[in-house]
Amino acid sequence: MSTFRSLVGALKKPINVILVVIVIVSVVLSVLAYRLTVGKQASTHVPTPITAPIPTLPPTPTIAPTPVPTKKAAPSPIILPAQDPAQIQGLDAGTGNRADQAFPGIAWFRISYPTCGWGGLRGRFLKDTIQYYHSKGIRVLFVVCQTRNLNSIDWNTIAHAYPDAVQCGNEEMKQDAAVSFLYMAPDEFARFYNQCERAIHAVNPKTPTLIGSLDPHVAGPDYQLMVGQVIYLNEMQYTMNTTLKRGNWNWRNEALGVIDSWYNGYGGANNLAGVFDFWAQQFNVDVNGGKLGRHLWVVEGTACYKGCGINGDDPAVVAIVHVLTLISNTETALRAHVPYFHFSGKDIQTPSDYGPTGVLTLQGQAKGLRQDQGVGAYRLTLTCSSNKSITVTTQLQLMVRLYNRCALPGDYASILSN
């Protein structure tokens, strides 16, 4: 208490007050100077971080998604428009692989499935072959020979190969011990034809499906045998409408394949015309009225060379018969507006016989108009469109010109027979 009193007493003296004020001011100035110095250092000093700085990373590149390969669409099949039967003329090309190179100028080929006994026209090869021909503007009559094992035939592939016509069966009525495998009873053949026709029409309802092919007969002498073919078709029709439930299926509304082998054009014979007359009556159409081609296709037309009353041992006779039949059959079919296929493209070699039935040799070489003579030994000058004259020296040239509606000279038969 005495100390406090002493301090108060001291302050009451003027000199002492001044000293206290000076001390206080000095303390305040010292504090301000310290804060200014420390503040300035704090504002310019950057402390070292405890950890290393995080580096700036480059931007992550955008990874493009892995492209999913798109399946290349299969090219659309080439489907040629249907033709009027009057415009259908061709030849049997056998296995048919690239036959256009062997038979230039022919617009239709008849080729066969392996059930016919040869060739490998099945699967992709079949499709590629027909598409190749279509790319060249060539049409195809495809033959599927009958078999009791219906499931052994790849019907779906055949249909999707888009043949221009299908012959369902071949000589199914033939009762010959030498080729007994060909014959099928009418009810069996009905099942075969039914499956063939349904498969083809499921893909293209407009594709002609021929009811097999008729055995060759001689019109007149073989009249009863031809009536037997009608009976066979009637029995087939019965199975189609009962067992197979086809309703009112009638073979007279369909088309038949025809085989004719005779010495037509030789000695005035024309068996093909007689065959046309018989079937025109069955279909109730005028033989030359333009409608017979809706019901008949000549799938094999050729000259006989033995067993038909000509001298098959004389090469000159066989040659004359061959070329005259080629001409006669073509003109008869054109006149009746019936599709026609010559049989065959090349000569045929069998184990027991050599068949000189082609327009080319067995090796694919050109034949003269008379096959017993070389090319050029005989010539014919035909009149084509716009009265253009064209001379031919080979059988293939002759066939192409006849198919193109060129006209023969009036004395062609005597020229070729001498």
Give me a quick take on this structure.
With 418 residues, this protein is α/β, with parallel strands linked by helices.
Fold and architecture overview:
With 418 residues, this protein is of the alpha/beta class. The protein is built from ten helices and twelve strands. It has helices spanning 2-11, 14-44, 123-135, 155-160, 186-203, 223-241, 271-283, 315-336, 395-403, 412-417; strands spanning 89-94, 108-112, 139-144, 165-168, 209-214, 256-261, 296-302, 340-342, 348-350, 353-355, 380-383, 389-392. Strands 1-2-3-4-5-6-7-8 form an eight-stranded parallel β-barrel, surrounded by four helices. A two-stranded antiparallel ribbon has the order 9-10. Strand 7, helix 8 and strand 8 form a beta-alpha-beta unit. Helix 8 (315-336) packs parallel to helix 9 (395-403). Residues 1-12 and 36-55 have low confidence and may be disordered.
Helix/sheet category: alpha/beta
- Helix count equals 10
Mean pLDDT: 88
Distance between the termini: 176 Å
Strand tally is 12
Topology overview:
Blueprint: H1 2-11, H2 14-44, E1 89-94, E2 108-112, H3 123-135, E3 139-144, H4 155-160, E4 165-168, H5 186-203, E5 209-214, H6 223-241, E6 256-261, H7 271-283, E7 296-302, H8 315-336, E8 340-342, E9 348-350, E10 353-355, E11 380-383, E12 389-392, H9 395-403, H10 412-417
Parallel strand pairs: 1-2, 1-8, 2-3, 3-4, 4-5, 5-6, 6-7, 7-8
Antiparallel strand pairs: 9-10, 11-12
